[in-house]
Each structure stands twice: as C-alpha cells, then as structure tokens.
Amino acid sequence: MKYTIAIIPGDGIGPEVTTQAKKALDAVAEVYDHIFLYKEAQMGACAIDKTGDPLPQETIEICKNADAILCGAIGELKYDNDPTLKIRPEQGLLRLRQELELFCNVRPVKAYPKLLKNSPLKKEIISGTDIVIYRELTSGIYFGKKEISEDGLKASDVCSYTVDEISRITHLAFKAAQDRKKKVTLIDKANVLATSRLWRKTVAKIGEQYPDVALDFMFIDNAAMQIVLNPKRFDVILTENLFGDVISDVACVIGGSIGILASSSVGEKNALFEPIHGSYPQAAGKDIANPLASILSAALMLEHLGLHDEADAIQRAVEKSLDLGITTQDLKGKNQYAASTAKVGDFIADYIANQEDSNMNFKNIHMGQSTII
Ligand SMILES: NC(=O)c1ccc[n+]([C@@H]2O[C@H](COP(=O)([O-])OP(=O)(O)OC[C@H]3O[C@@H](n4cnc5c(N)ncnc54)[C@H](O)[C@@H]3O)[C@@H](O)[C@H]2O)c1
Ligand SMILES: CC(C)[C@H](C(=O)O)[C@@H](O)C(=O)O
Ligand SMILES: [Mg+2]
At the top level of CATH, which class does the domain 120-255 belong to? Predict the structure, then answer.
C-alpha cells in the first residue's frame, strides 16, 4: 500500500530524531512492501526564520492532505529566554492542533523491565506500571482569551470548556479502558475550578454508559504525588489540556527517560504523532538525543493506519535495542558507553530489516562514534 506521511522535523533535536524514525519506516516499507511518500513541512522556529510564520499555510495543506503526520519537536532557546517576543514557535504547534481539531492526545507510559534501573523511583513501585493518559488538546486555558494590560502590570488567560469538548474525548477514554484494566481516573481541580466541576459532572454522566468501567476522581495536586508514589493504581487517566501536559512529564520518570515516550494526537479527519519531549535545544546537532520517542511515535502512527504487524516490528526492534543496551546516554550510567542517536536508529532499522533472520549477529552491530559520559 502507498501512504503519504507529512514529516515536520521542527527545531532542536527534532530533525535528528525524525530522521531515525524515517529509517525505521523505510525498513518497514521494504519488509512489508509498502510505499511511504514523505512530504516535509516546516513548523516552529525554523518556519519563522524562513517565512515569518511558525505555521505556514503550505504546512497546513501538506498535513491536511496526508494520511498521517509525524512531528519532531519545536522550540528554540532565543524564544524561551525572551518572553516579550510576540511570534513564537509553539504557536505553530498549537495552531496546527486546533486547525486539524486534534482533540484527543494519547500518551502511553510503561515501565519497560530493562529500564527499571533508569528511573529514580524504586523498582518495586514502578515495575508493572502501564498507564495511558488521555489529554484534551484543543481547548482549555491554552486556547482561551489572553490579555495583557497596556501598562504591562496585569495579564490573564481564560480557561473554558464545553460539554461537547469534554464528551468527545471522554467516550474515547472509556472505550480505551474497556480494552485495558477497565478503570478511568479523571484528574481535575473540582474543589476550585468551575471548568473542573463541568468535567466531573459530564464524565460521571457518560460513565453510566460504560458500567463495566470503574470511574474515580482525583485532584491534580494529589495526582502529581500519587503518580510517583503508586503509579500502578492508574489505568486510563483522563484530563484537561494543561493538567495533561504537566502530569505526562511527571509520569515520564516512570519510563526511565522522557526520550522514550511517544504520543498520538487524533481528530475526526487527521492524526499527528510526536514525542512527548520538546526540542531539547542543548543537545541539537550533537547526535546524543534519544530517538526512541520519535521511533515509537512512528509505531503508533502505523497502528493508527491499521498496520499492526508493522507497528509490532518496530516495537520488537526497540525492545531488542533496550535488551542489548544499544541506547543513548540518557539511559546509561556514568562511565558507560552510549550509542549515538544515529547508531540507535541504524540498529533499529537493521533489526526490522533482518529480524526474521535468526542468524543476524548482533555482535557485528557497529556502535560507531560512541559517547562516553
Ligand atoms: N511537542 C513539542 O514540540 C514540545 C514539547 C515540549 C517542549 N517543547 C519546546 O522545547 C523547548 C525545550 O523545552 P524543555 O527544555 O522544557 O523540554 P525538553 O523536553 O526539550 O527537554 C527537557 C529535558 O528532557 C530531556 N530530554 C528531552 N528530550 C530528550 C531526548 N530525546 N533524549 C534524551 N533526553 C531528552 C533532557 O534532559 C532535557 O534537558 C522549548 O522551546 C519548549 O517550548 C516542544
Ligand atoms: C510545546 C508546547 C506547546 C506543548 C504543550 O504544552 O502542549 C508541549 O509541552 C507538549 O507537551 O506537547
Ligand atoms: Mg509538554
């Protein structure tokens, strides 16, 4: 089959990690006889530099017409360090999410047995953790009216939600729970916020349509603590935009590194796949960033396209790289050799291309310019 994939490399480490994801996709295409037609599009700081706009119209068109979108990351230090700049890279990503109505952001968080030692949390606490976060992505405080007074002494961001916006992601979260451990936890701040109370009321009502799924509620401040104290109590987490952004980065410590966590952002017509992490500008061009979040985002993309065997092939290759310790420095201890970004990508592509060949000799896999830390 032929698929058109919009690729948005973005800024910082974005281009390096998406290059590795493309290597994995190329290997999948070869083994399973598909054609992936990549259409590269600009977004973020690189797009501002080229066109003055973080989301040029051409990018929107390429994304709308693609079967799926694979995004690296956007953002650059000069914007992070200057709050007065009005045009910002992040506006590109936010507008794209809104323009394509990618309302349902799914962020799976797992404790891989091989990576238990990489988490600062105790092994017995995180072992067996398997959570999926359903984060509402196109409303809430991110998209409410923003104002700053003329004298610059007062600013406000409005948070609003409608029942429809809450309902559409809630149904998806309950349906996901039905195929998992049958539990949904709504994370909110209903003791303070009117929007959270609307979430509780709406989600409780919808929950009645899913009697096989248990529903509980937790305030965000407590949830930030429970997710590190007792992550196994969670199955599907459902939450609004800002809380979902924060709780998913907290949950990353369970996985051992933010560099391995992938996400999908799905709407009625389009779907975008990207790492949870940002553009990690300090690592840009150094060939040290972990490409697994991008590679696993490509696997989520294949799942979405109905290519389950192909997605499994990527997943198996990633697990093999972890088993063999062919990983970047974020997953290594002090004084251990780490593979470069490109070498991890090469290994994964090679493994996909050759995994049915039991004679593949992993000892021959060349680690190339390893980094010692
Ligand atoms: N979806 C996105 O494109 C996205 C997401 C988050 C942040 N951002 C942007 O990224 C820029 C940097 O933000 P930040 O520093 O808060 O977050 P970040 O995720 O880029 O980096 C935070 C830390 O996480 C680790 N990290 C991140 N990605 C990694 C990888 N692939 N391999 C190994 N370690 C990794 C590093 O230790 C890094 O210091 C900002 O401009 C921000 O707006 C973009
Ligand atoms: C870059 C930023 C706008 C984005 C968000 O806040 O949604 C990021 O942190 C994420 O988690 O995808
Ligand atoms: Mg974030």
Answer: alpha beta
